[in-house]
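To: structure subgroup
Subject: Chain for Friday's discussion

All,

I'm putting the inputs and outputs inline so they're searchable in the archive.
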Amino acid sequence: MELRHYLSIAQIMISVVLSVLVLLQVKGTGFGAALGGQDSQFRTRRGMQRTMHRMTIVLVIVFLAFSAWSVAAS
């Protein structure tokens, strides 16, 4: 297997984990809030919410880096 195949597999795995993290964060908010409505309250993130939020940001950065690396490798 070539490097680009490994990068593609890594991108798929990261995207699955990223999707799960995003879906877990949306749980508990109304459908209107998910579309940008004003249903939700603004509050600080604590505990697990803060950790999941930070993990999401890190995974997005890692995903973008792998995507750029994949394009450069092909």
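Points worth raising on Friday:
Residues 20 and 56 are 10 Å apart (CA to CA).
The two ends are 13 Å apart (CA to CA).

D.
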